[in-house]
Amino acid sequence: MKSKILGKRISVYVLMVLITVITVGPFLVTLFMALKSPGEGIYEGILPQDPTMVNFIDSFEKANFGTYFLNTVIVTVMAVPLNLLFCSLAAYPLARMDFRGRGLALALIISTMMVPFQLYMAPLFQIAGELGLRNTHLGLVILQVSTAFGIFLMRQAYLRVPKELEESAYLDGANKFQVWYKIALPIVKPTIITLAIYTFTFTWGDYLWPLLNTTKSGMYTLSIGLAQLSQNFDGSNMKLISAASILTTIPTLLIFIWLQKYFVSGQTDGAVKG
Amino acid sequence: MKKGTKKLVTGLFTAGLAFGLVACSGNETSNSEENRSEKSDELSGEVTLWTASLAGEPFDTYFDNIEKKFEELHPDLDVIIEDIPQNEMEKKVLTSLTGDDVPDVVNLNPHYMSNIAAQGGLLDLTELLNEETKKSFVEGAYVAGFYDEKLYALPWYLTTTVSWYNGDHFEQAGITETPADFKGVYETAKAVTEATGKPSFYQVINDGNTIIEKMATLANGGPIVKDGKAVFANNKAILEYFTLTQKMYQEGLMPQENAEGSFSGGQELYMAGNVSFLESGVTFLGPIESGAPDIYAASKAGQPLSGADAPMNVAVMNFAVPSKSQNPDAAVALTEFVLNAENQLEFAKTAGTVLPSTLESLEDDYFQNPGDSQKALGMLEASKSLERSKVLLKATKNSALLRESAKNAFVRNLQGKVTPEEALKELEAEWNESFEKTDEKVTF
């Protein structure tokens, strides 16, 4: 019996190690490649023989990382709170208030998720230009300030808030805004964190819209810098690209590690009640 | 993304942009004409030039100098040069044409150029340039700027085909020179594979363009399409090429990965020492130098793997002026300036792996004695093969389909799913059907 349990446990651990290798493996290979010295071939064994940071320094300089990093931080810092604010505000009435056309409004919002970006990017480009949003940080985040996905996610979370809690708050004299702010919002905190992480990762890695909406390279973001490196005229230098990819990924990784306990609990929120 | 979804998205994207361009085209023409009619002797205002994937050093310094020199010639003009990742250039130009933030000069390859020109997005330069400028370019490269018999772009830098081989592997096999025909390729591949125990030859397929170019080279000056009809199925050299590549793939002289056939796939295999020779441009060696210094040191360049007189394709990078340019006179002047012999020579020296497109700059001693680095030797071979190079394929409305079907036919043949004869017959039928639909009577 004991050996059966031990065998089961070993097979579970083997499976876990295998999954870890599959998921973390590519990241480690990239890291090792980035640490290889200029004289070392990328296919000469996995581990670097003479680890060096020179590729990180080179990629930082060559990809204009300083400016692009700052731009990316600015747009992400703008996008996350704006998206959280607008999505949580827009979703609440769709979940809790009765008004004519609520179902239609929800259907229209969700339907925008079905339209490929490529189809509306040209008119969006025109509108952004007419609104003076070209080459501005606000212009870069315009797609993220209120997303259909965020509204849907938040609405699903609000549906889980017990109605009784809100009703007793109304009985205590709270108005609608207070009920939203003081009762509903704290309860859906894990979903807010989830949405924050989604918005962060999407904005941090967004490529096509920042590229289209900028005509000055001083406004480029990290993902454009990465593309410039990988589509370099003289062919891609894999060590530099690996180093740049690691540098780009670190902030996302740190944010995820910091917020992962909320992320895991919030991830299933959208699926509980429809 | 799945292939079907990708196609759908690409279709939607093109449809959306085409709609946007049509909607804007009314203003477009009048804007440009108005702008041109306001031509004054002195250029002024802003002029923006977009380069494709030329960010970072040494190019930043080169373009800073261009900017400075042109502004000295035209003190009232502000030159802005920005770099766009090459893969997104077409999307970016097409999108910008739907609004008012349009660049004045753009760096395009002939595929992008013909697609944007077909949608009315580029200025016809035929009447805007003098004969002296037009005659300053290499003929084969110059004609690449034409679409529908109008000149939409001028050539900038060129890449011609050379062969790259791993000198150590060749030495192991006792081979001293690259083969000059496809029978020779087969024999060389066999000898090298026997010596190294690994596949040795790689055929770059990409989206099918290299296969069509190879077919045109093998046709040795004869057309593969005549008056809108494919005429290659009975060509002996092309049939031999399909037969031998199938044989090489089956015998393991070509790697299994060759069915994917990308340029970067070839680079990775070569870098890892898993293939020994192939045809490509000089830029092929870029990532090898940083990623596999030993392989780079062993690399040698030779003439393309075809007959000594066979016509070779030249890959051209162009400059074009968008039709909605707000400053077309300055745009044309800047284009001429960047493309003059002096600046092109300087650019070729800066890049170190490309050839200029002006006849005068090609006469410079640099191209006879470029140095002894691997890249320089590649340049030397490239400049030799330029003499017999031209743009082998014509821009047609169905060029994307022609490339895709050529790729499919070649891969199916490689994998032995069809016989070489069947592959060529099927490809010919597909092309003919497509040409009937587009009603283009082209010959190439």
UniProtKB/TrEMBL annotation, chain B:
Keywords: Signal
Cross-referenced Gene3D superfamilies: Periplasmic binding protein-like II
Metal-binding as UniProt keyword: no
Stored PROSITE patterns: PROKAR_LIPOPROTEIN
Annotated signal sequence range: 1-23
Keyword Signal included in the entry's annotation: yes
Name listed for the protein in its UniProt record: Sugar ABC transporter substrate-binding protein
Native source organism of the sequence: Sporosarcina globispora (Bacillus globisporus)
